[in-house]
Amino acid sequence: MGCRLNxxxxxxxxxxxxxxxxxxxxxxAVTNEAVKQTRRAIRRARRERPxxxxxxxxxxxxxxxxxxxxxxxVNRVLGNAEKLxxxxxxxxxxxxxxxxxxxxxxxxxxxxSFSTHARAFVEVQNGCEHRCTFCVIPYGxxxxxSVPAGAVIDRIAALAESHAEIVLTGVDLTSYGPDLPGAPSxxxxxxxxxxxxxxxxxxxxxxxxxxxxxxxxFALLTQEPRLQPHVHLSLQAxxxxxxxxxxxxxxxxxxxxxxxxxxxARADIAIGADVIAGFPTExxxxxxxxxxxxxxCDVVHxxxxxxxxxxxxxxxxxxxxxxxxxxxRAARLREAAAARRAxxxxxxxxxxxxxxxxxxxxxxxxxxxxxxxxxxxxxxEIVTVTIKAVQDGKLIA
Length: 397
Prior knowledge:
The protein has 13 helices and 18 strands. It is globular, with a radius of gyration of 21 Å. The protein starts with a helix and ends with a strand. The strands form 5 sheets. The protein has a 6-stranded mixed β-sheet with strand order 16-13-14-15-18-17, with no helix packed on it. By secondary structure, it is an alpha/beta fold. The longest helix is centred in the last third of the chain and has 25 residues, at 323-347. The chain has helices at 4-16, 32-48, 59-63, 65-69, 86-90, 137-141, 149-159, 186-196, 215-223, 240-246, 252-265, 284-296, 323-347, and strands at 22-27, 53-58, 76-78, 95-96, 119-123, 125-126, 145-146, 165-169, 202-205, 230-236, 270-277, 299-306, 352-358, 363-366, 371-373, 382-386, 389-391, 394-396. Helix 7 crosses helix 8 (186-196) and helix 8 (186-196) crosses helix 9 (215-223). Strand 1, helix 2 and strand 2 form a beta-alpha-beta unit.
């Protein structure tokens, strides 16, 4: 469930449990809806596999283990640290969840293969030092900790033998490095990966915090051809007062200026963004600023979330926007974002794109992360195609 980091860790869990008749639900807690989806997945899995062991782990399980242990469908609950530890899987206790804030080491196990995916996901960072007022994820993931560059490079070198594209993942990816000797930056890590793994064809980064994109990383994003032209930013809102109440570290103007600089330096960069609708105290005028940010930051890969109050967070104690208004604002954001994305896709007709073929072999993603449908090709290879049309939000080659 949820983020690419869970996907990366899921492959590690799959390797740990090879040959075991176990269902693992790797949960998400980013919103109340994500927790509800986790519960639905648990119930569905039990109906489909009544005899299998069913284990729940991930952020929702870390934050509220007893709630999942109380579900009759669940056999065991493991925390986010335990899910990557062989000893925890070998144990029998029904609930095994430690204090995530006390965890200091990085994940001990990086996935050796991603046999079910055309691209491989490599965790380089976990946890978060920041405390955005709406977010519970630090309580599911703990404080920020980084994987040493040597381990990352070794893993990517092995994965590059069978995967044309690698995605670097983390909870707060741009905070990579301060806890390591010499305090390397994410930009330095990317440089080392590209230098030491010449076989790697495409490197992609997951969500970035714009205020932490330094000159080195900016240069790589805009000048390095193997780093894909797709930047996903954690924007969250387009109004300065809302951003302040969220305890974000950037202003609206900083986000707009960053995107302008990125696009000026590399015109084909496609911008993605996380945006929250209906944050507590958000007025219609504040919302209008966020709506306008979609155009001002040229967002073509939108992740729109209606605000969801999470118990224990400061935002949950703020004056709430009515649920029907939150829902309506999220719908307006999605409608505006869809219109902008449609215009962008139309602008790509006639262009040449390099597409990584994914299962079942007649689809894939271009470097800018637009989805492309094309004649059947071998899964995992990169093909060069000319875009002929747009259909149902997909490029047709």
